[in-house]
Here is the input.
Amino acid sequence: MRQVIILLAVLWVCDGVKFGQLCNGNPTNRRRTSDPFGQGNYGASRGGRLHKGLDIVCSDGSTVYAPFDVTLHGKVTVYTDPNKSAINNGINLSGAGLCFKLFYVRPDKTSGSLKKGEKIGTMLPMQTVYPGITSHIHVQMCDKSNPTGYF
Here is the structure.
């Protein structure tokens, strides 16, 4: 019985998790909507595949913040295409019972921990690779489930 109560408590705490501000200049985590390159919602069409993340608007060069207390779990390589090397960086994180990745971010460090609101790194120059796109951080859950409910 005690294990069931503890499990329910953990599920209740995780269910109420919301991301804090990710990007300087976007205190409400405004989402990328439609632009010449598509849409930023989870499940949006990407040609023959579906978008497995949620895009949060972030200007090139902006500071990216920890959305809650997080542990850093190493660098993410986003692309294999050398033409996209300017934005080929990200970070694996966990915190608040979640495992997630942030793409298009140059992290200041790739291990350790950060408190909510501390700097994770800097938004990479997305406009150099995709001129005219709405620059954004791509938030992807480790299991590729839909992150929208956490925003």
Summary: Helices lie at 2-15, 126-129. The first strand starts at residue 34 and ends at 35.
